[in-house]
Amino acid sequence: MNLQEIFRRMCLIRYFELQVAEAVKKKIIPWLAYLSVGQEAPSATISTLTKGYSVFTQHRGHSVYLAYGGNIEQLIDELLGCKTGCCKGEGGSPCIQDLNIPMYGHHGLIGENIPLATGYALATGNSTVAYFGDAAAEEDYALTSFGFAATHKLPILYICEDNNLSILTPIKDRRNWNVYDVTTAMGLKSAAIIDDPKIIFNTVKELINHLPAFVNIQTCRHLWHVGCGNDGPPKWDRLDEMRNIVSNAKEIEEQMRMYVEDLWQKQLQKL
Amino acid sequence: MAKTVAETIKEIIRKHLEKNNGLLFGQAITAVGWVNNTVPNCKNIIEFPMADVSNMGIACGAAISGRRPIIIIRFQDFMWLNSSTLINYAAKSKDIFGTPTPIFVRALAQKNAGCVHSAVLHSIFMHMPGFRVCSPMTPKEYKEVWNDFMNNDDPMYVSEHRSSFNNSREFRNSYKKADVTLIPISITRFNVDKTIEILAKENITCNVAHVVWLKPFKKDNILKALSNSKCGVVVDADFEISGASQSIAYSLMYETGAPVKALGLYDRSVGVTPETENPAPDAHSIAEKVRQLLRKIKK
Q1: Where are the alpha helices (DSSP H) in B188-282?
Q2: Which of chain A's residues have a Cβ under 8 Å away from the Cβ of B59?
Q3: Which ipTM was obtained for this model?
Q4: Which residue ranges make up each domain of chain A?
Q5: Does B18 share its domain with B157?
Q6: Which of A49, A94, B80, B234 could pair with B183 in a Cys bridge, judged by C-beta atoms 3.0 to 4.6 Å apart?
Q7: What is the CA angle B159-B65-A200, rounded to 5?
Q8: Is B171 domain-assigned?
Q9: What is the mean pLDDT of residues B273-288?
């Protein structure tokens, strides 16, 4: 496990998203943006274990795109609505894709990427990973896709980035069951963990040998469901905790901050 | 002996699954009858669970991979559940992501099957951008439709009708000087011969321009027939209101200036008894629509 590399990816995502938040605040990005601030750890960690997998992400997908090495200039351009964006400016924040990863976007319906990823894994036999939230996992088409993957023993890893919120409605108000129990009952190797990169790494490293598998990772969204607002300090900040664990954390963080800010400035100058 | 529509479909599917490494998805495919004997017993058939919404998503995911899956929806009524990913992802992926989702949707209809097994719903897919929509009723038309699918990368909605499966004849258009041009779609195409006979007894002459391609709408034959007649009637097995028949009638009127009426299902539910059935227009109702239109023109 390379904690420095995981931390570097977390910083890349954090400082990228803070730039997006700034652009939203200034109305440079006047349309919807779904930010991953606080949710960096799952994709930053899992991407180090699943290089070469086909990746299917959901509307809050900047983190996944960046963690897997998606083209960052094209993502900025996409958010700015430019023709040079990763989806020619037509998709915007929730619909991003980079086939060089390969990562497939989706149209924006919550959890739509789950059956898409499942069908793709069936048709290609390629190792596939699908990222989605705790509300997406409630969709009937998500649940039946888990069952389909178990039935056909597909090489797919399902990652639920569980921030406990459907916009602002917590899980306890939405259901009295948890996804882990359902996927376990269906026959998927399953785990329910917190977003500590060490735990994520060790769990996923084991599970990718037993696909299909499901991992529910409790994480903490710092900003609103959409846009750059917040409702006070977050319950936890995993990136902040990592600062005390990772060697050379300060240098890595500063390097990523400058890298991201320079890129944003360069892309903004084109406008 | 000429092949039937069912035999043609079966032959196309077998070749696709065995030679092209294609895929076929559907519910109860291998059950009694193999979808009216249109599906061969061969490899690459995946039985779906009764999970309509996710099934189409899984099929679309397979389509991204380039294996050009066929999905069978045994009754078009089920499209309401199955259409989500088809409309929201498959039809848009080329525009938004630059990656196509070529999937061949065999959507079947049936006569006299009540409120959940009788629908013809091609109109809603004409309405949404990104689809190719067609309704082949003959072996030659089905082959043309399949070749079009294999040579394009759009999702294809194929509005089939079980009553056409035993058909082996090809339809002909007629372009003579006539009082009216009949423009039938789907299963109503089998009814217009009788309409022509009925109206001939009243000295009303008819041209016929068959519709196979709803989107992109192919109309050369229709314009040619319409140019030699006073008016037209578009007849469809889907609902008339805001449906294919009204849409096509409007575009033909706008383009030619000729009066063109629409005739489809009434704006009410389809029942199971003869009294409540709301069936596709038959020969007599088409004839009556023609009489009404000609009377109106005369005034």
Answers
A1: 192-200, 220-227, 244-256
A2: 119
A3: 0.93
A4: 3-269
A5: yes
A6: B234
A7: 125
A8: no
A9: 94
Q: What is the pLDDT of residue A271?
A: 82
Is residue B172 a part of any domain in this protein?
A: no
Q: For testing the chain A interface, which of B68, B89, B103 should be mutated: the one with the most A CBs within 10 Å?
A: B89
Residue A58 touches partner B, C-beta closer than 8 Å = no
Q: Quick one: pLDDT band at residue B246, thresholds 50, 70, 90?
A: very high
Distance from CA of A119 to the nearest CA of B (A): 4
* A residues 193-252 lying closer than 8 A (beta carbon) to B: none
Please report where in the chains the tokens 């063109």 appear, as a residue: B260
Q: What's the CATH code of the domain at B95?
A: 3.40.50.970
**Which pLDDT score, from 0 to 100, does residue B275 have?**
87
The C-alpha of A265 sits at a distance from chain B's nearest C-alpha, in angstroms, of 26
Residue B299, pLDDT > 90, answer no
CATH of domain A3-269: 3.40.50.970
Question: B232 and B226 in contact (C-beta within 8 Å)?
Answer: yes
In percent, how much of chain A has pLDDT > 90? Answer: 96
Structure tokens that stand for A128 in this block: 């596939």
pLDDT of residue A106: 86
Compute the distance between CA of residue B102 and CA of residue B153 in angstroms, rounded to an integer: 5
Give ∠ CA B27-B31-B32 in degrees, rounded to 5. Answer: 140
Q: Verify that B71 and B212 share a domain, yes or no.
A: no
With cut-offs at 50, 70 and 90, classify the pLDDT of residue B167: very high
Helix, strand or coil, per DSSP, at residue B78: helix
Pick the residue from chain B with its C-alpha nearest to A146.
Answer: B54
Between CA A37 and CA A223 the distance in angstroms is 7
- CB spacing of B99 vs A108 below 8 angstroms: no
